[in-house]
Amino acid sequence: LAKTTQPISMDSYEGQEVNITCSHNNIATNDYITWYQQFPSQGPRFIIQGYKTKVTNEVASLFIPADRKSSTLSLPRVSLSDTAVYYCLNTGTASKLTFGTGTRLQVTL
Amino acid sequence: EPEVTQTPSHQVTQMGQEVILRCVPISNHLYFYWYRQILGQKVEFLVSFYNNEISEKSEIFDDQFSVERPDGSNFTLKIRSTKLEDSAMYFCASRPTSGGTSGANVLTFGAGSRLTVL
To answer: What are the start-end ranges of the E strands in chain A?
Structure first.
């Protein structure tokens, strides 16, 4: 199991771009990098997943450098409703998918 | 959009009682999971289940806990002799296939069952 590391919390103003970086120092060759979002009192929700370079969907972009030892989740023009905890998953076996400590994003006006 | 359904949404029980939390995973999913989240803390892995048996379990998942797939749709978590520290949100999750961590193999979570032990 390769544990990830990410900042405990971040603050942003509405309308700004937010970048949350996660380190994956011991990521295995065939592991994908996956991010989840969790609102208070709700279950985690899949945001985005990638293997290398850049992936973009309607919610976010994910940047993965060539060495794959880190990843950056980018949220464009955040709003108050993006206030949540963002998790990058620890990599390892698919039968034991574990969450790191998460980054608590607080968006204010 | 298919979803994972959990019942009850909230259960209050007395210390020492047994609790069963129920989950209906997405119908074509093969892998099932239970996670726990104590208030204000991170999401903790409890157990994964595939082909009618436990695949992995964490150190939290001791003899007090058990899981079962009693029929083709339900997936249950039983907590025997509940303790105050079992108070938490319990999340069920499922994913489509058995191999790898890529692509479609992302977890879909239910809304959770809040357990309060008094």
So the answer is: 9-13, 18-23, 33-38, 45-50, 53-56, 61-64, 70-75, 84-90, 98-99, 103-108
CA distance B51 to B30: 7
Cβ–Cβ gap B107/A97 under 8 Å: yes
The phi, psi pair for A74, rounded to 5°, reads -115, 125
> What would the pLDDT profile of A15-45 be if each residue is shown by its tens digit?
999 999 999 888 888 888 899 999 988 999 9
Structure tokens at B56: 């992995």
DSSP three-state, residue A76: coil
- 8 A C-beta contact, residue A95 and residue B54: no
Domains of chain A: 9-108 (2.60.40.10)
Q: How many CB atoms lie within 10 A of CB A45?
A: 15
**What pLDDT digit, counting tens, does each position of B27-76 carry?**
888 899 999 999 989 999 999 999 899 999 999 999 999 999 988 789 99
Domains of chain B and any CATH numbers: 5-97+108-117 (2.60.40.10)
Q: Which residues of A66-105 are buried (b: 16+ CB within 10 A; e: fewer)?
A: eebebbbbbbeebeeebbbbbbbbbbbebbbbbbbbbbeb
CB of A80 within 8 Å of a chain B CB? The answer is: no
Query: Out of B4, B42, B101, whose CB is closest to A94?
Result: B101
